[in-house]
Write a structure and sequence with these properties.
Two copies of one chain form a homodimer.
Chain A (H helix, E strand, L loop, with lengths): L2 H9 L13 E10 L3 H10 L6 E4 L22 E5 L2 E6 L10 E7 L5 H6 L5 H5 L5 E7 L9 E9 L4 H9 L10 E2 L25 E6 L3 H9 L3 E5 L5 E6 L6
Antiparallel strand pairs in A: 1-5, 1-10, 1-11, 2-5, 3-4, 3-10, 6-7, 7-9, 8-9
Amino acid sequence: MTGAQARARFREGLRVPTVDWASRYTQTNLIAVPQEHAYDLLLFAQRNPKACPVLDVTDPGSTTTALAEGADVSTDLPAYFIWRDGVMVDEVTDARPYWRDDLVTFLIGCSYTFERALLDAGVPLRHHEEGVTDPMFMVNRPCRPAGRFSGPLVVGMRPIPPDLVATAIQITARYPSVHGGPVHVGDPAALGIQDLSKPDFGDAVKVGDDIPVFWACGVTTQAALMASRLEFAITHSPGYMFITDVPDTAYAV
Amino acid sequence: MTGAQARARFREGLRVPTVDWASRYTQTNLIAVPQEHAYDLLLFAQRNPKACPVLDVTDPGSTTTALAEGADVSTDLPAYFIWRDGVMVDEVTDARPYWRDDLVTFLIGCSYTFERALLDAGVPLRHHEEGVTDPMFMVNRPCRPAGRFSGPLVVGMRPIPPDLVATAIQITARYPSVHGGPVHVGDPAALGIQDLSKPDFGDAVKVGDDIPVFWACGVTTQAALMASRLEFAITHSPGYMFITDVPDTAYAV
């Protein structure tokens, strides 16, 4: 399945997590903010590149992107969050009723991009096996603020068998523009995570005897919306990503 | 020599190219623009990341940076260009007489960061041998525009022995946030370069039987100043870089 085929299904209204969809094409996070806040958000991304690698930014009001021909970012995701004053007030499958002419849309790299490379190397991915979205946590590391934006780092956790942790690190480090190598390996408490079974976003997965490994996550931008109480924004729903036409391999170093 | 020691010398007024200075510390390009143009420049950099990898952006009017403790970016470079309406109108060793409260300063990655790794691997660097700045050329590849900014890609050329081209590519590709691997190998005419002995910036070097290899260069921002006729800007003088406290190795993947 191509990115275009997946987008067409979501445009028709299908609401499913995008894990395993169009699995050789890069998926992205989405955050659209009023133009007056676009500089601060772009600077926040620059100052926190591990969490917020920017893959494209639209012109104000535009819903097209260089990453996907014919795509409309206001309709082609399976689910959107609508935010007011830092609170998620609605979840929709079509964001057009909320879209505004002054919105600037940021498409931010997603770690799904390196998951095919992990699977190809024999690294099992629990959330794929369980058919759910990976668990994400707001942790005790503050982002570097920029103007209107501040907030905690958000990480995604994957349980990795001990003998494959090195492989997983080597592979993901080759993808620096989509979060790159992990930010932490092992003890969740060191990140301030009390209970791995209660993620802030996404779904819990079985950890068992595997090592919990934590990668920076683009949902960091949503934590920044909360912390910064921005008056208005539209984002993807965590796990319900935008699928581009860009092959995952294009982001490998 | 540390970055701080080098900066102190330049602050006192020493005007020399920074090649081989504080050779294990990352050097950067500098471009300071009025705040009203900062968003367009940050977006131009995001849209042309190979040429314009942003390592830090100051707050408006500030001359300090997270990359170098105690540094003042308006005094600590050996030479600055002053720009009006896209034309370089003055070259100074102290930019304070021209500095303005509304300037936002961008520090942009420089390929000098991977030169120590090249030398350590036995790849000879002609401009080091000759004690000059590497030759830079404006080429026939347009950058992706952003608001007020457009212009051609600028590349730096290094002659590499044929049996070391693969090594040079492998090593530099590990530094994606400081230009990464080359954008072109071989025939200069394919880039629209008529004469390798007449660079647009920097100094000519002997090529001989080596292969000319071209890396994207942060001076692309100066070509954008020219093409965009920005009313005011301050930059480093090509080859006279800002030296940070960050080890070169920090940018290796």
